[in-house]
Design goal:
Elements (H helix, E strand, L loop, with lengths): L2 E4 L2 E4 L5 E3 L3 E4 L15 H17 L2 E6 L9 H11 L2 E6 L10 H5 L2 H13 L11 E5 L7 H17 L3 E4 L6 H9 L8 E3 L8 H9 L3 E4 L10 H13 L6 E3 L4 E5 L4 E2 L3 E2 L2 H7 L7 H12 L4 H17 L9
Parallel strand pairs: 3-5, 4-12, 5-6, 6-7, 7-8, 8-9, 9-10, 10-11
Antiparallel strand pairs: 1-2, 13-14
Helix pairs in contact: 1-2, 4-5, 5-6
Length: 332
C-alpha cells in the first residue's frame, strides 16, 4: 500500500514516521452505557485530554498513532478525526470486531462470513457509516481459552477482506496465546504473514513463543508497556533484548495499549470488577502512551539497544507492515 488511510485522509507510507502501533483514544466495553453509577462521558473534556496527549507525543517525535479499537468497544471515528485535526497527529483507525467473550456477538454471529467480509471492505474503501472516514486496516481478536468458532469466522472474514483490499491485519491476543493459530487462519485466506501484527505478544515471558511468531513471518507486538500487573516491564525489556540479540529486531513493534482520551463507563476486567479510571491509574501509574519515551527507551539504550534498532522498531517496521513490501527477516 503506497497510501495509508488515516481518519483525516490518506498519507504516504514513507510519511508515517515514528508510529505507536496499538493505542486508544476511547474504549468502552459492551454495555458501558448501562452503568448508571459510572462517571458520565464528557466529550469536550475527553477531547481536550486526547489532544493534549497527542501534542505531547508529537513532542517526542511520534508522527502516527494507530487506534485499533474494534467496532464493538466504543469506536468513535469522528472523535478520532477531531483529535487528529486539532492536534496534527496522524491517526489510523480499524474495522473489525472483538473476541467472543468481551465483544458484541449477536449480529455478527448471525451473519455469514461473506457479509462480514463485505462490511469490512466497505469500511476500508467507502468509510464508516456516513462519515466517509475509511479504516486503514482490520482488527481481529481471540480469547484465552482457544479460538472459538465465532472468532474463526471473524478471522476468515478479516483475511478475505484484507486480501481484497490489500491492507494489513492487527490482532488482539489474551495472555500471549494463540498467535500462531491466528497467523495460520489468516494466511489460509491468502494474507501474507508479514501483513499480520500479532498484538499483546508481550503478555508472557516466553522467548520460544516470540520466536515462533517471528519465524512464521509475522510482526510481534510488544505493545503493553506499562501494564505491569500482568507482567513487569523489566521482563518485557528483557524479552525485547533477547529478540534483538537473536536477530529479530525487524519483527518487533512497540506500544502501550493505553487509553488517553477516556474510558466509556467503568472498565470491567474479566467480567469481575468494575473500576474507575483513577483506580486504574493508581495501580498502573505508567500506563500511558509517553511511557516508552520517558522510561523504557532510555533503559533499553542502557542495555545496548542501538538507535538504529529503536528506529527499526518504531519507524521502519510499522512502515513495512503497512506497505507489505517484504517480510521481517532474521538478522544474522
Amino acid at each position: 500500500m503506497e497510501w495509508i488511510n488515516t481518519v483525516t485522509g490518506r498519507v504516504r507510507a514513507e510519511d508515517l514516521g515514528t508510529t505507536l502501533v496499538h493505542e486508544h483514544l476511547l474504549i468502552g466495553f459492551p454495555g458501558w452505557f448501562m452503568d448508571a453509577l459510572a462517571p458520565r462521558f464528557k466529550r469536550a473534556e475527553a477531547l481536550a485530554r486526547a489532544v493534549d496527549k497527542m501534542q505531547e507525543l508529537l513532542g517526542f517525535g511520534v508522527r502516527t498513532f494507530l487506534d485499533p479499537c474494534p467496532m464493538d468497544l466504543g469506536r468513535d471515528v469522528e472523535f478520532m478525526a477531531e483529535v487528529a485535526q486539532r492536534s496534527g497527529m496522524q491517526i489510523v483507525c480499524t474495522t473489525g470486531a472483538y473476541k467472543q467473550d468481551e465483544g458484541i456477538t449477536y449480529t455478527f454471529g448471525a451473519l455469514p462470513v461473506e457479509e462480514i467480509e463485505a462490511i469490512y471492505v466497505h469500511e476500508l474503501t467507502e468509510g464508516v457509516g456516513e462519515t466517509g472516514i475509511r479504516a486503514g486496516l482490520i482488527k481481529c481478536a481471540t480469547g484465552a481459552q482457544g479460538v472459538t468458532e465465532y472468532e474463526k469466522k471473524l478471522l476468515t472474514a478479516a483475511g478475505r477482506a484484507a486480501v481484497r483490499v490489500g491492507c494489513p491485519v492487527i490482532t488482539h491476543t489474551d495472555n500471549a496465546s494463540f498467535g500462531v493459530e491466528q497467523i495460520g487462519l489468516l494466511t489460509a485466506q491468502g494474507v501474507p504473514a508479514h501483513r499480520i501484527l500479532v498484538g499483546h505478544s508481550d503478555g508472557r515471558d516466553d522467548h520460544a513463543y516470540h520466536r515462533a511468531l517471528a519465524d512464521a513471518g509475522a510482526y510481534v507486538g510488544f505493545d503493553r508497556f506499562g501494564i505491569e500487573p500482568m507482567i513487569s516491564d523489566e521482563k518485557r525489556m528483557q524479552s525485547v533484548c533477547k529478540m534483538i540479540a537473536a536477530g529479530y529486531v525487524r519483527s518487533l513493534c512497540l506500544s502501550h495499549d493505553a487509553t488517553c482520551g477516556a474510558w466509556l463507563g467503568r472498565p470491567v476486567f474479566g467480567g469481575r470488577r468494575a473500576l474507575r479510571a483513577e483506580q486504574i491509574a493508581a495501580f498502573m501509574p505508567n500506563w500511558e502512551p509517553t511511557h516508552l519515551f520517558k522510561r523504557i527507551l532510555p533503559q533499553l539504550r542502557e542495555r545496548g539497544v542501538s538507535e538504529g534498532d529503536v528506529n527499526t522498531m518504531l519507524v521502519e517496521n510499522p512502515r513495512r507492515f503497512f506497505v507489505g513490501e517484504e517480510g521481517p527477516r532474521k538478522r544474522d
